[in-house]
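FORM 12-B: Structure-to-Sequence Request
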């Protein structure tokens, strides 16, 4: 229930008059509205009133022939010619509070977890905000413990760093995300499930994330059956919520699955608005929106940070796919997960040699860099000769480095294996690796 001050605030915010136009055309996912085009701009909001009296929120995505082109956040059922389209004043925003922790919401900021209404904060946060100014941002901070041994040791992340998780479907990225959300030392996790299968949402919340993970997280969900605007806005909302907690001087871990589905939603919007398709059918706005979205993560202008880990779907391991290539150029490192590693039973199925963190080796001590360097050399030597070793064509004694790699390979593989119920700290990871390799060399 709203208190007196909040009620007065909402009443004062009500417009004194309404501006509206009429629907002149409906085609596919687009609604054409006339009469108010001079009061609207790209990104503006309208409410189209269906013949049954139900308001459907829409966003302006373009103009054509002197008419505004709108896309709905809901279905177009019961919308026809002549339906009233009311102009919504102001920009879309949310009013988050600390009490949002443990809640699951949709792309419009509405609760979908059955736990009652969301508390309302005092400060509005724009859903589609810009990144902090580059000249005012802090540098990335100290190393962050993510609780996953292979990432902590070989791909150390700093506070405010942004990493991509590149994987095909069914390789274990959802389980990895749940481990990161549960075991990170960040104060808050904000998780965006963009275009997720509806069947898997509850499974992720109850089975993968669990009560411990949910308690310290805010989860934003837009399933694959929802309109493209909902899927795109869920990504924007994920960052808006992260920015609130960052401004509370907290370290936030922002997880989003996946950037690819955000790009697909933007592709549907752009093509419907008449944009020309370019690489693999993606219109130019996709590649313009990606940096605007992902640059919102990182260090802020104050104490708080947003550390980002974003999944990217790479079918068939194609790292040169347009979205994967664009995202890799924006982020501060990439984690590559491979199906063949998972098929031999090693999870998380991370290919260490194809993955990189751009803050390493700067965030490590010389001893840690020497230890990681030695492990990487051994893994690379084994990888180069792996086929010959498996076929039995390699003869022991032919190469001293390969012999050493064969000796250490079982222990390194066991080190990289971690169950989803296990947590490993930064110090534990380096200590275990040092014990395996007997120090650096």
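FORM 12-B RESPONSE
SEQUENCE OUT:
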């Amino acid at each position: 229930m709203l208190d007196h001050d909040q009620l007065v605030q909402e009443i004062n915010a009500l417009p004194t008059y309404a501006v509206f136009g009429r629907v002149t055309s409906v085609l596919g996912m687009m609604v054409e509205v006339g009469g108010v085009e001079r009061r609207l701009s790209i990104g503006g909001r309208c409410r189209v009133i269906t013949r049954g009296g139900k308001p459907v929120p829409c966003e302006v995505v373009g103009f054509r022939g002197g008419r505004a082109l709108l896309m709905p956040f809901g279905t177009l059922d019961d919308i026809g010619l002549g339906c009233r389209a009311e102009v919504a004043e102001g920009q879309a925003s949310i009013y988050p509070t600390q009490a949002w922790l443990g809640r699951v919401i949709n792309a419009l900021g509405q609760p979908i977890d059955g736990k009652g209404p969301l508390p309302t904060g005092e400060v509005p946060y724009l859903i589609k905000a810009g990144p902090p100014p580059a000249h005012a941002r802090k540098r990335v901070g100290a190393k962050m413990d993510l609780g996953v041994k292979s990432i902590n040791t070989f791909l150390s992340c700093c506070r405010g760093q942004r990493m991509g998780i590149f994987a095909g479907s069914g390789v274990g990225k959802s389980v990895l995300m749940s481990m990161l959300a549960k075991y990170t030392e960040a104060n808050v996790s904000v998780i965006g499930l963009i275009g997720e299968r509806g069947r898997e949402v509850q499974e992720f919340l109850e089975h993968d994330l669990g009560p411990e993970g949910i308690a310290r997280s805010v989860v934003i969900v837009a399933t694959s059956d929802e309109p493209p605007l909902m899927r795109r806005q869920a990504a924007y909302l994920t960052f808006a919520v992260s920015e609130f907690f960052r401004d509370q001087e907290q370290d936030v871990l922002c997880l989003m699955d996946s950037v690819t589905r955000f790009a697909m939603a933007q592709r549907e919007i752009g093509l419907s608005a008449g944009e020309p398709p370019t690489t693999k059918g993606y219109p130019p706005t996709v590649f313009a929106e990606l940096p605007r979205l992902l640059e919102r993560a990182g260090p802020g202008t104050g104490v708080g940070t947003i550390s980002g880990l974003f999944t990217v779907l790479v079918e068939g391991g194609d790292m040169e796919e347009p979205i994967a290539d664009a995202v890799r150029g924006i982020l501060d490192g990439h984690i590559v997960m491979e199906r063949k590693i998972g098929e031999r039973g090693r999870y998380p199925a991370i290919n260490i040699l194809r993955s990189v963190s751009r803050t390493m080796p700067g965030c490590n001590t010389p001893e840690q860099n020497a230890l990681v360097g030695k492990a990487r050399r051994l893994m690379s030597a084994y990888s180069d000769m792996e086929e010959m070793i498996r076929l039995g064509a390699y003869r022991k004694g032919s190469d001293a480095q390969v012999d050493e790699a064969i000796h250490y390979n079982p222990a390194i593989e066991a080190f990289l294996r971690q169950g989803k119920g296990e947590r490993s700290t930064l110090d534990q990871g380096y200590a275990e690796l040092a014990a395996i390799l007997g120090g650096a060399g």
